[in-house]
Each structure stands twice: as C-alpha cells, then as structure tokens.
C-alpha cells in the first residue's frame, strides 16, 4: 500500500528520522543512521553498494560487508514498513533515496554531522572528517578525493580474518556463525 509519505532526515546534530506527518521513525542502529546520512548527502541521493560497504564495513572484508549491508537494509525495511520501496531504490549495484520521497531537515548550524556517533570504521571516520570541515558542502564533496587521501594515510591491517563457512547445518547455525565472525572482526579491529 503506497502512502505517498515523505521521510524527513536530520543528520546534523542529533540524528532523527520522521514522516512528514510528524511520526518518528525508530532507527536505533548507528550504521543505518550513517547509511541514511551518506545517501542524503550524496549527489542524487545514491551511492554504490561497494562504496557503502567500504565506508561502513570496510574492516569486515567484502563478503561480510555485502552481508552486513543486506542485513542493514533488511532492518531498515522493518523500520519503514510498507513505505520502504517508496523511499529507497535498491539494485544489485546501487542504493538510492527516491528523490521526491525524502527531505533534509536542518543543516550544519544545528551541530556536527552525525553528532555523537561512536562508529570507528576508518572509511566513515575519514568521510565524516572531510564533511565536517568548514566550507565543505554536500555539493562540493568529492568522494574520490577522500578515497585517495585515505589510501595514502590509512594504516593497513596486519591481520586477516578468513570468512567462516558452514560446511553442514541449518540456516540458523549459519546466521549464528556470521554473528560470531562479525564480532571477532570487530574485536580485532579495535
């Protein structure tokens, strides 16, 4: 059922998401909040899945990054309900906010971008640093420059985690294994 509602996003200062009628949308995950902020500040409201994975799950590796992005979109689908497909366009390569179905509320005068976020992913930290610089607006942000700077200055990890694979078992055991692998990866990245 299409409702035609718009989502209002506040990404400067304390994050909030609400429908244009005022009803708050409960988005507790910092990664989903960051995902929405990245999309809202990207040209055309879209970003490649690969870039989102790099920014939000760069330390997890490509396979876990893809799975984590899928899980985040699934969680966002639960939060948005029937409006998910009206607000977000997803394809195998892109994620995009529908141009006429969202609106930015507030701006840099309301506080830091994603104020209070505790996320420690290097890609996201670099992106936030660049976006928080005085005089940088979403229109002047060039993602390729941040990627080049990060490649020159980032510390490369000296440990690798081989993805877990379920040899036999149930789907629940596979999810449990993914959860353990993700926790190990996070602990190692700290």
Please provide a written account of the structure.
- The protein is α+β, with helices and mostly antiparallel strands.
- Helices cover 44% and strands 11% of the residues.
- The chain has 7 helices and 6 strands.
- A 3-stranded mixed beta sheet has the order 2-1-6, covered by helices on one side. Strands 3-5-4 form a 3-stranded antiparallel beta sheet.
- Strand 4 and strand 5 form a beta hairpin.
- The chain is globular and about 50 Å long.
- The N and C termini lie far apart (44 Å).
- Our measurement of the CA-to-CA distance between the termini, rounded to an integer number of angstroms, reads 44 Å
The share of residues in helices is 40-55%
Q: Quick one: biggest sheet?
A: 3 strands, mixed
- What is the mean pLDDT? 82
The count of strands amounts to: 6
Strand proportion, as a percent range, falls in 5-15%
Given the helix and strand composition, which structural class is it? alpha+beta
The Rg value, from CA coordinates, equals 17 Å
Overall geometry = globular
Strand order of the largest sheet: 2-1-6
Element string (H = helix, E = strand): EEHEHHHEEEHHH
Counting H and I runs of at least 4 residues, what is the number of helices? 7
Unreliable stretches (pLDDT < 50, length at least 5) are: 139-156
